[in-house]
Amino acid sequence: QLAESGGGLVQPGGSLRLSCAASGITLDYHLIGWFRQAPGKEREFVGGITRIGSFTFYADSVKGRFTIQRDDEQKAIHLLMNSLKPEDTAIYSCAAGTGVPMTAPTSFTYWGQGTQVTVSS
After folding, report:
1. Which end of the chain is more exposed for a tag (fewer CB within 10 A), N or C?
2. pLDDT above 90: percentage of residues in the chain
């Protein structure tokens, strides 16, 4: 089971931190991905962090603005989002899995319910 938190309404240029916590599975043993889905659009890969080495990868649309971090103390994965734009508005979900490639939803077994992020003035 995965659960996201931290979504909300933010003005363009603002920041948010989303968190992904797990119960029943160990995040350290899984590839973790963040995906988003805007109304009327397909689910989109945002970024991910590998199980070994904690290497991070990002979609071009968020590179340089979003950062994924492991939080060993809180046993969570955070998605730090800066310089938010209206086009970042979507439901953001975290996922855990062991498949490849990282960008494919089918690589992930466990999914959270998602948290709404709205970027608007």
Report:
1. C
2. 84
Distance, in Å, from the CA atom of 108 to the CA atom of 94, rounded to the nearest integer, reads 10
Closest to 46 (Cα-Cα) out of 96, 92, 113: 92
Counting as low any pLDDT under 50, the low residues of the chain are none
For residues 18 and 118, the answer to whether their CB atoms sit within 8 Å is no
- 33-57 as b/e: b if 16+ CB within 10 A: bbbbeeeeeeebbbbbbeeeeeebe
Q: Within 13 Å, how many C-alpha atoms sit on residue 102's CB side?
A: 18
